[in-house]
Automatic annotation (TrEMBL):
<feature type="domain" description="Transcriptional regulator HTH-type FeoC">
    <location>
        <begin position="2"/>
        <end position="48"/>
    </location>
</feature>
<protein>
    <recommendedName>
        <fullName>Transcriptional regulator HTH-type FeoC domain-containing protein</fullName>
    </recommendedName>
</protein>
<dbReference type="InterPro" id="IPR015102">
    <property type="entry name" value="Tscrpt_reg_HTH_FeoC"/>
</dbReference>
<dbReference type="InterPro" id="IPR036390">
    <property type="entry name" value="WH_DNA-bd_sf"/>
</dbReference>
<dbReference type="InterPro" id="IPR036388">
    <property type="entry name" value="WH-like_DNA-bd_sf"/>
</dbReference>
<dbReference type="Pfam" id="PF09012">
    <property type="entry name" value="FeoC"/>
</dbReference>
Length: 73
């Protein structure tokens, strides 16, 4: 399943960009972001977006004691 593969790639890389995941799996960065939303809502993966370039999205594993803030943009 693609969701498991995406999570495995994040686990292996530590931190990985949406662009890199898109290239690896033949998807668009928006498609990756939509699929990663499942893991983000479960608290498994964290999305990181720099203020300078909101399109430069990276993902990493969430820490077990980390507090999550979800924002609707």
């Amino acid at each position: 399943m693609i969701l498991q593969k995406l999570k495995a790639s994040v686990t292996q890389a530590g931190v990985i960009s949406a662009e890199a995941l898109a290239k690896e799996y033949g998807l668009t960065p928006d498609g990756v972001d939509a699929m990663m939303e499942t893991w983000i809502k479960r608290g498994t993966i964290v999305r990181q977006c720099p203020c300078q370039d909101p399109a430069d999205i990276h993902y990493r594993l969430a820490h077990h004691n980390e507090i999550h803030c979800l924002s609707m943009v």
